[in-house]
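Re-run requested by the PI after the first attempt was lost when the workstation crashed. Everything re-entered from the original request form. Ligand of interest: fe (ii) ion.
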Amino acid sequence: MFFRQFLNDETACASYLFGCNTAAELAVVDAHVDLVESYISAAEAQGSRISAVLETHLQADHVSGLPKLVERTGATAYLPEGSGVDFGHHPLADGELLKLGNTVIQAVATPGHATVHHAYLVTDHRRGEEPWVVLTGDALLVGDVGRPDLHASGDRSVEEMARTLYRSITGRLLALPDHLLVYPGHFAGSVCGRGLSGHPASTIGFERRHNEALQVESEEEFVAALLEDIPPAPAQQAQIVATNRAGRPLVETP
Ligand SMILES: [Fe+2]
């Protein structure tokens, strides 16, 4: 399996290009608008095409590179079922598989940071028949968990989002084996979390033991700690969400 992490220091976003060079098919997860040409040239250098572009969730802190990347490559867009975007895409159901040659991606519904959010479990069948890597988006970060407030609205209160996130993390992500490699959507400097590490990768086992947000005895304790300490919202949050929902370039407000 080919696998590269791309870091954008300005927004502290991590994105991923990976897949099967034997089948010459690669995927991008959580494409950043400023890195579209970088993904394309990295794929070209491998002699592979980008055939799938996936989002873990509708982003609220940065403009997604998905629409531009789909336009440039002809790849299929994949978003979690119920993302509510206004452009054509394949809605991924919980548990659904996406095959790129020897690399297989499985969607794992992990809402809470966003109302719909998928982590992606990655199996490299050249190495083994079990998952090796989990791309956790903004659900589980390295040293923290995603903030619960950015996508809360109406009957979905921030507290309810925090409870949902707790169930996603404990029921789905921490149910994975300790050796699974964790690749998150952000690292230190992002407004999407508080105590994020500057090291943009970890394992399920290390986060289970050392992630401060997970050192709690109960859902109540997790929720109380998460609500106590919410960082300021990202600049231009509403415009960024509208842009990503529409799949068009960001219109700057004066
Ligand atoms: Fe996010």
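Saved to the shared folder this time. The pocket of fe (ii) ion is lined by residues 57, 59-61, 113, 138, 192 (CB under 6 Å).
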